[in-house]
Amino acid sequence: MDAKTALLVIDVQRDFCAGGALAVPDGDAVVPIVNALARHYPTVIVTQDWHPANHISFASQHDGRAPFETITLGYGEQILWPDHCVMGSAGAALHSALEIPHAALILRKGSNRAIDSYSAFLEADRATKTGLDGYLTSRGITQIDLCGLATDYCVAWSALDARRFGFEARVIEPACRAIDLAGSLDAAWRAMQAAGVARAGAV
Ligand SMILES: [Zn+2]
User: Fold this and answer.
1) Residue 203 pLDDT greater than 90, yes or no
2) Catalytic residue among 15, 154, 161, 176
3) Distance 41 CA to ligand 1 centre (A)
4) What is the distance in A from the centroid of ligand 1 to the CA of 199?
5) All residues at 6 or more sequence positions from 95 whose CB lies less than 8 Å from its CB, including other chains
6) Tens of pLDDT along 77-95?
7) I want to staple 116 with a disulfide (CB 3.0 to 4.6 A). Which of 15, 92, 103, 124 is the partner?
8) How far, in Å, from the CA of 120 to the mean position of ligand 1?
């Protein structure tokens, strides 16, 4: 892969894999695929969902609410999740079989108690930047390939924001798995297609 293309590995963490607090179906399957994929890229960025224990996206923080319900917050609609990826916890760790020693940056997102952050670029208020756009631009990156968990949430939102910030974006589908909540996977692919995100079967 050329020096202008970076691989963004989204949230391959224990809590999103088998036995985790918010396990994505077949999530573990991406690990060897991502490991092999990453060897083709000189620049790899790895993200971690990384929340305080009282994070606003946790159903446990809202009386009478259950996981996977949707509520309206100041910044818009928010799906309530089981407690997951609590900063410093075992579940927040990267999958133990993930092997990307040359990863240049590990970016943690969702640390703001009051705002969720599916995207690696912008928090859910759609205004607060993580700084990733500046990091990539300053390194001369123009194309971003994405993989990881989950296709329809953090991968899709990151891909859409990559386009928003002017990068070419491509989702490597075999290296992703989805949650697929109430049609969310189809909706995510439609939104990505409309935004000019490419869908790749392989690299
Ligand atoms: Zn989260």
Assistant:
1) no
2) 154
3) 26
4) 24
5) 12, 13, 14, 17, 28, 31
6) 999 999 999 999 999 999 9
7) 124
8) 12
User: Containing domain of residue 140, as a range?
Assistant: 5-53+83-184
- Known active-site residue 125: no
pTM score > 0.85 for this model?
yes
Q: Return the CA Rg of the chain.
A: 16
Task: Judge whether 116 counts as a catalytic residue.
Answer: no
49 occurs within a structural domain = yes
Q: Reply yes or no on whether 17 is catalytic.
A: no
Number of structural domains in the chain: 1
- Which structure tokens are listed for 84? 């997951």
Q: Give the pLDDT confidence of 109-133 residue by residue, as tens digits.
A: 999 999 999 999 999 999 999 999 9
Q: Is residue 74 part of a domain?
A: no
Catalytic residue, candidates 83, 85, 109, 116: 109
Indicate which CATH number applies to the domain containing 137: 3.40.50.850
Which residue reads 């995510």 in tokens? 188
- Distance between Cα 3 and ligand 1 center (Å): 31
Q: Name residues whose C-beta falls within 8 Å of residue 105's C-beta, 6 or more positions apart in sequence.
A: 45, 46, 135
For residue 1, how far is its CA from the centre of ligand 1 (angstroms)?
30
